[in-house]
């Protein structure tokens, strides 16, 4: 039952105005809807009216005030059909729904007793009968009726226009949203919430009230989100000329939420983990995540809400662009190189794996069974990389003109990715037709590069060859337009050489365009032998292979003018050393550490860093997951052993340097989530992790003291993790116990407590998961808890991939239970099992066995689609 992009047709009927009344009750909420419907001008007369609806008990239905007889409409699994309707009419329906039974967290549900909604992508059909598709845009007027005691706060989109008392201790508020929107942007919140309020005056002089609504005990955790919101609002005005368009902007924090947050018009709903922070409970990473997500949802007000998607195949139109916008915002407010390094190392690990696996799909898919499965790294992050390439291709000025054109031309409309790219093409005068293939072709392009310096003529020839491996359903790939930013670093001077290509001067840091399968680029007037620095700042989402020697890499690591490539050269150098050690481990040969890596680290530790956060990244070895990505066949144990060996060898050789760096970076100033402090903390904690890898006595003492000093969650969590991941239970147990008791009341901190213990390398990780599943703070119906315990365990590579298959079995058991409770989370959680092709035969069989076992269940569409792909 897949849906195809090529089948798109405009809706037969559209809704211009929607009036809703909710009479809230946990078991039996009544929803009255009055839809102002008219036939779509481009569609033929006489088409039946088809509305989506799931799990709704219909109580009444009328057209233009006339109740319909039983033979005048039909109810199906998927909705409601009325065979004959006028060209223009009012449709009244009344349905009953049970928010308290809604564990899928789509539609209207309850979280900690409060009511909230999640409608994207297709949750609105669990609220009322409606054309639940983004190209139907209506103004909304919503009345919420609740118990004045239990639900003193009643929120929806737009502006409150009326409120009052009702008999029986009930009260109501009516909200009006003047901006036409698709129903996926509808939201309702009701409960005993408290607010923090602030204000913002837009560039155009509109005074906007900003509110963050939380449970009372979280009132002290909203400052950072509020400050981030104000920064984001200003940034969008200054950078994109986009102003906010209502008098009120609200954020609500809820504990049970499938994703990070949702951009509902004027009423963003957030996973509490994506909005609440406090120095005592949230790490630097959490502070930065909150800033990024608050900005992301706010930016959707234009890229997503004012201009939305024609259909869900266009999801990346809003998500790719908005992720790109939030990435730039975060780069502007933090250390930009470190932001880029973090983005790319995450992208190359997780998105590359998705692109290489059975669920690989284009940034604009051409079919799907369950759209909920397509909120992926490909749609979001690869989509953002494509937008970034576009920005670099046309340059910022043209990009900004294209963006203005896009928002002006399509304001209030539901449009496509072509519409967006066409604006960029018009604004820049560039032909972007080949570039558009990025949206339709799945898989990670690989570029094989090699170069040759001709001493006699001062010429450097660079040959690039691209290929994209086949992906499911796409055996043949066409060449893409790939922009490669590069420099040629002179080996004598250590400087970027001026680039001359076809007689044209490109500066010292230029962009070349790969269009063909294979292309040669001949640089002339190259005064000395260079080492090429390719795909600077990750100029395209590709794997680039170049036969660098270790000497080349060590040279680039210190001399490349591009900070990102300096870091990447170090990663490549470490990967080469790791390759040897992985082979040695597999062959049972003695492991020998590559002295060049030690010397590179020694130099890094000796230099006075200009950006400590970058240095911390440079001192961080590639993760086990990223190393695995580079291997033809993943040997989890060899990878773990090799990485551990490198880490310990570095710690032994450079112990005093790490100690010195630790000491130099422990400051006792009051905590602030600011780039400089964050950089210091990361550097200090990286140094400590090396010392702890050899369980150095002094290191242990430092970790213990750092834990007990209890200065801020970043330092406490770093120290606790190192203690718990050590081989010494006398260090792990008391720290875990103290932390667990201290934070038993705080669900977000308990999530961290769960994750830390089940990520430990010791062989009891699996038993701990089982034990913790019975912990009073754990719950399968709370997605954060599932991610913190089960999701984190599945990332614990040596333990999840235990040779006895117990890790796989545990995951499958949980997936089977979640299939009933929360299909969206179940389908996400199963991902690690779908990557079976990458492992040895024994593990393949075990993983497939678990997938087959899951397949034996009555599957939700979400899980069905993923399992079928994984076993295809
Ligand atoms: N649009 C939201 C965001 O990116 C995410 C919505 C996710 N919805 C879902 N059913 N997975 O901010
Ligand atoms: Zn988004």
UniProtKB/TrEMBL annotation:
Its cofactor is Zn(2+). Keywords: Aminopeptidase, Hydrolase, Metal-binding, Metalloprotease, Protease, Zinc. InterPro entries: Aminopeptidase_N-like_N, Aminopeptidase_N-like_N_sf, PepN_Ig-like_sf, Peptidase_M1, Peptidase_M1_dom, Peptidase_M1_pepN, Peptidase_M1_pepN_C, Peptidase_M1_pepN_C_sf. Residues 443-546 form the Peptidase M1 alanyl aminopeptidase Ig-like fold domain. CDD domains: M1_APN. Residues 551-872 form the Peptidase M1 alanyl aminopeptidase C-terminal domain. Residues 225-437 form the Peptidase M1 membrane alanine aminopeptidase domain. It catalyses: Release of an N-terminal amino acid, Xaa-|-Yaa- from a peptide, amide or arylamide. Xaa is preferably Ala, but may be most amino acids including Pro (slow action). When a terminal hydrophobic residue is followed by a prolyl residue, the two may be released as an intact Xaa-Pro dipeptide. Gene3D superfamilies: 2.60.40.1840, 3.30.2010.30, Neutral Protease Domain 2 (1.10.390.10), Peptidase M1, alanyl aminopeptidase, C-terminal domain (1.25.50.10), tricorn interacting facor f3 domain (2.60.40.1730). Pfam families: DUF3458, DUF3458_C, Peptidase_M1, Peptidase_M1_N. Its EC number is 3.4.11.2. GO terms for molecular function: alanyl aminopeptidase activity. Residues 102-185 form the Aminopeptidase N-like N-terminal domain. Belongs to the peptidase M1 family. This is Aminopeptidase N. It comes from Halomonas koreensis.
């Amino acid at each position: 039952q897949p849906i195809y992009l090529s089948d798109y047709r405009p809706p037969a009927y559209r809704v211009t105005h929607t009036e809703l009344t909710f009479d809230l009750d946990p078991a039996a909420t009544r929803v009255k809807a009055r839809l102002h419907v008219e036939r779509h001008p481009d569609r033929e007369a006489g088409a039946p009216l088809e509305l989506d609806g799931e799990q709704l008990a219909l109580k009444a239905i009328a057209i233009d005030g006339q109740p319909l007889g039983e033979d005048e409409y039909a109810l199906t699994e998927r909705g409601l059909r009325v065979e004959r309707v006028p060209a223009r009419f009012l449709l009244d329906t009344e349905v009953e729904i049970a928010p308290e039974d809604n564990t899928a967290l789509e539609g209207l549900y309850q979280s900690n007793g409060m009511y909230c909604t999640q409608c994207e992508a297709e949750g609105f059909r669990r609220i009322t009968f409606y054309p639940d598709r983004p190209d139907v845009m209506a103004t909304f007027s919503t009345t919420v009726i609740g118990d004045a005691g239990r639900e003193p706060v009643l929120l929806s989109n737009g502006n409150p226009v009326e409120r009052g008392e009702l008999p029986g201790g009930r009260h109501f508020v009516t909200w009006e949203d003047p901006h036409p929107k698709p129903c996926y942007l509808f939201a309702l919140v009701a409960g005993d919430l408290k607010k923090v309020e602030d204000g913002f005056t837009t560039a155009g002089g509109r005074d906007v009230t900003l509110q963050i609504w939380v449970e009372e005990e979280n009132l002290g955790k909203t400052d950072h989100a509020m400050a981030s919101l104000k920064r984001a609002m200003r940034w969008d005005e200054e950078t994109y000329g986009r102003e906010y368009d209502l008098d009120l902007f609200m954020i609500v924090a809820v504990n049970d939420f499938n994703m990070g947050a949702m951009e509902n018009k004027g009423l963003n709903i957030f996973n509490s983990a994506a909005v609440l922070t406090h120095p005592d409970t949230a790490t630097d990473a959490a502070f930065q995540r909150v800033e990024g997500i608050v900005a992301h949802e706010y930016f959707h007000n234009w890229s997503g809400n004012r201009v939305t998607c024609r259909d869900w195949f266009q999801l990346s139109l809003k998500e790719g662009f908005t992720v790109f916008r939030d990435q730039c915002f975060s780069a502007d407010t933090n250390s930009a190189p470190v932001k880029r390094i973090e983005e790319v190392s995450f992208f190359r690990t997780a998105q590359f794996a998705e692109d290489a696996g059975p669920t690989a799909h284009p940034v604009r898919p051409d079919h799907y069974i369950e759209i909920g499965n397509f909120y992926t790294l490909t749609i979001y992050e690869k989509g953002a990389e494509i937008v970034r390439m576009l920005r670099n291709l046309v340059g910022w000025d043209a990009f900004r003109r294209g963006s203005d054109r896009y928002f002006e031309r399509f304001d209030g409309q539901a449009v496509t990715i072509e519409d967006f790219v066409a604006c960029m093409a018009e604004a820049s005068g560039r032909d972007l037709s080949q570039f558009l293939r990025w949206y339709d072709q799945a898989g990670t392009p690989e570029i094989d590069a090699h170069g040759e310096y001709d001493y006699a003529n001062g010429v450097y020839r660079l040959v690039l060859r691209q290929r994209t491996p086949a992906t499911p359903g796409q055996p043949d790939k066409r060449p893409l337009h790939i922009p490669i930013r590069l420099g040629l670093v002179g080996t004598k001077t250590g400087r970027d050489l001026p680039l001359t290509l076809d007689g044209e001067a490109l500066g010292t840091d230029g962009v070349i365009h790969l269009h063909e399968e294979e292309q040669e680029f001949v640089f002339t007037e190259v005064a000395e032998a260079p080492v090429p620095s390719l795909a600077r700042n990750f100029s395209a989402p590709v794997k680039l292979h170049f036969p660098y020697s270790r000497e080349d890499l060590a040279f680039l690591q210190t001399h490349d003018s591009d900070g990102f490539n300096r870091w990447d050269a170090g990663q490549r150098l470490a990967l080469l050393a790791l390759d040897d050690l992985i082979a040695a481990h597999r062959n049972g040969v003695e492991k020998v550490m590559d002295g060049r890596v030690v010397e590179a680290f020694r130099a890094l530790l000796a230099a006075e860093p200009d950006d400590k956060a970058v240095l911390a990244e440079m001192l961080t070895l590639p993760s086990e997951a990223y190393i695995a990505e580079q291997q033809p066949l993943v040997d989890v144990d060899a990878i773990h052993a090799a990485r551990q060996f490198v880490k310990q060898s570095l710690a032994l050789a450079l112990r005093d340097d790490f100690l010195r760096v630790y000491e130099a970076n422990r400051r006792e100033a009051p905590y602030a989530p600011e780039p400089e402090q964050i950089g210091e903390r990361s550097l200090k904690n990286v140094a400590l992790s090396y010392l702890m890898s050899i369980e150095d006595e002094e290191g242990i003492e430092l970790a213990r003291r750092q834990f007990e000093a209890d200065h801020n969650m970043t330092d406490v969590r770093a120290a606790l993790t190192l203690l718990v991941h050590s081989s010494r239970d006398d260090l792990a147990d008391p720290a875990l116990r103290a932390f667990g008791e201290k934070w038993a009341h705080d669900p977000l901190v308990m999530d961290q407590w769960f994750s830390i213990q089940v990520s430990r390398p010791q062989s009891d990780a699996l038993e701990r998961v089982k034990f913790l599943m019975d912990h009073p703070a754990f719950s399968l119906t709370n997605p954060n808890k599932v991610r913190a315990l089960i999701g984190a365990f599945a990332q614990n590579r040596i333990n999840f991939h235990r040779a006895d298959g117990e890790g796989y079995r545990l995951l499958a058991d949980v997936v089977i239970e979640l299939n009933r409770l929360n299909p969206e989370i179940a389908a996400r959680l199963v991902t690690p099992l779908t990557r079976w092709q990458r492992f040895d035969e024994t593990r393949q069989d075990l993983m497939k066995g678990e997938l087959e076992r899951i397949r034996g269940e009555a599957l939700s569409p979400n899980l069905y689609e993923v399992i079928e792909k994984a076993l295809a």
